[in-house]
Every structure is written in structure tokens, then in C-alpha cells.
Amino acid sequence: MEIPKLLYYMKCFVRFWLIVINNLYCIPTHCLWILLLWPLQWFSPKMFLTIEGYGFQWLLSMVSTWCWSAGYDVVEMGDEIESLISEKTLLLINHQSTSDVPLIMSALDGHEGACRNIMWIMDRMFLRTNFGIVSWFHKDFFISSGKEYRDKSLIELTNHLAHVYVPCNRTWILLFPEGGFLHKRREISRKFALKNDLPSMNYVTIPRVGAVQNIVASLGPVKKMTNGNVNNGTAGAASVSQLKWVIDLTIAYPNGKPLDILTIFCGSVPPCNTVFHYRCYPILEVPSDNESLKQWVYDRYIEKESMLETYYRTGKFPDHRNPDAFCQPRLVLHDGTRALTLHLLYFASTVFHYHLLSLLLSYFFF
Fold it and tell me: What angle do CA 141, 181, 61 make, to 5 degrees?
């Protein structure tokens, strides 16, 4: 075997196991701290949520390092999102592969405080992954896929928004309306488009709008809530922390070929930039009735298709603010010193918990 190829395989092997080890000294110790601090939420729920939020943000920063340490950077285009980090926002994202989530984490990690109070809406199968228990502790929402679970899942989402999103003062809701990866849903989407007089698309699929309709209906500008129950604004009702924005995020991979989680683990393809294009809509500009909202969401994905077609053909994203111009790239930057400090913090925390558990086991069983 040639030496350069041998070095390549060695690099991939070492990176893979370093990330596995990173999971082992970060996730268990995070969960142990959450369990130790669990009683705090009965006496000071705000303090518990603040501590848990920082822990969640730091773990997402660990995932972020997997991306940028391999040279897989995120370049942002379109509207600026910095001023919206603390606003109640629904983020609509096109879904292409297993690399979408870590790259989203990497992008948000480049904005101070963006990861702390977000709420993911994800498939229930994510619970089986290494990060599933962390998301469960963070009270993200796990949705069951399939027609037979659709109505039940939407009812559960309504309850989750009322009893978790609002009381926990979450900010961004992250949603993949397509409900699955591009390559898995493309043919189903084309059949649906043909049956419903919609355009056939190559770079995105027809989105499922039930969750979007549910969120807008629950948190739209006319809704109010009393004691966790949504009503129509009766006397004495306190206004909900309502949605302020809907952000349409379009992810574009180099040459239209998505990375995947194993590629990120191993760093097995050359460094490259993934483009995140944002378009921000004030919630008052978003239709509230179900039929108009459904068409509005469809229009956003038809627009995504057009933008991605232009990008893959020209290497540039059209600027919606100026039809004759293209978007200027903004590289998402990360602090290596902060990342190293977090790694050392998690390693020290793991050592502490190891000795603590050893002490407890020796006290009770020996």
C-alpha cells in the first residue's frame, strides 16, 4: 500500500476513535450532572434550566468541533440572524443527509448563545442515537413518523408547546418539514407533486405542513395562554411568548453532494464549505389559516428548488433583496481555545464522576 494512502486511512481511523472517545467522556458526565441537579427544578426551575441550557450548548459545541476540525466549514448567506438569536423563531430546514444536524450545530455554535434554548423537532428514532438521551433531558420533541401516528403526534406537539416550549422559555424551534432525507423521499414527493399539480423537484421534496400549521396555530400572534391552556384571549389571560419570526434555511452542499455523519467522523473527504442561506419572515407576514399557510410553505420549498438550481449551476445564491445581485458569503468562525477548554472541562468532569462512583460503590458494597 502506498504511504500517502496509508496515512489517509490512519488519519480516518484516528479521527473516528477520537470522536467515539469524545462521546464517552462528554455525554455520560453531562447526564450525571443533570440527574444530580434534577431536584433543583423543584426549588428553582429557572436556575435548573439555565444550567441545563449551558450544558446543552457546550455539548453542541463538541459536535461542532467534529465539523470544523476536519475543515467542513459553514458559510452563511442571505439575511443576518444574529439579532434574532433570542427571539421566538421557527426555523424551516431542507433535509438531505445525516450531516445536516451536526452542521446546523456548527453554524449555531458560531453565534453566541444560539444553542442554549433551542428546541428540536425530530424523528423518534433519534432517541436511539448517542445524542438521544441528551435531547430527552433537554425536552426536545420526538415525533412518530407514519400516517397512523400523524394525528396523535400533532396533538402531542400542541401539548409539548404549551407545557414545555413556553414554560421553559425556549427560543428557536428547529424543524425539517420534509420529514426525511432527500434521497429517500424524492420519488414519493414527485408522485405527490404530479397528483396535486405541484412542480416536480430535484433538490428538495414537497414538505409536510402539519407541524408548521400546528406551531403557527399554537404560538401565532392571536393566541394567548392561561395555566398552560391555549385559549382565544379571554379576560385575565396572559399573552404567550409568541413566535416573532419564521426563518427559511436552505442548505447547499458542494456540487449537490451531501456529506454524511461517517464522513464527518473520519474526515474522509477534502475540506469544503457548506452554504446556509437564510431568509427571515416576520410572523405577521406569514398566513395563519391552514390552507394559505400550506401554500406559503409549498412556495418556500419551490423557491428553495430555484435557488439551489441557480447555486449548483453558477456557484452563487441569488439575493432576494436585490434581484440583480448575488449573496455575499460570511464564514462562520469558531474559537479553538474555547473548544479546548470545554474538552478539558468534560474530561475533568468524567474523572470526577468516575472517582465519585467508585467511592460510592466501595462504601455500599465493600
Answer: 55
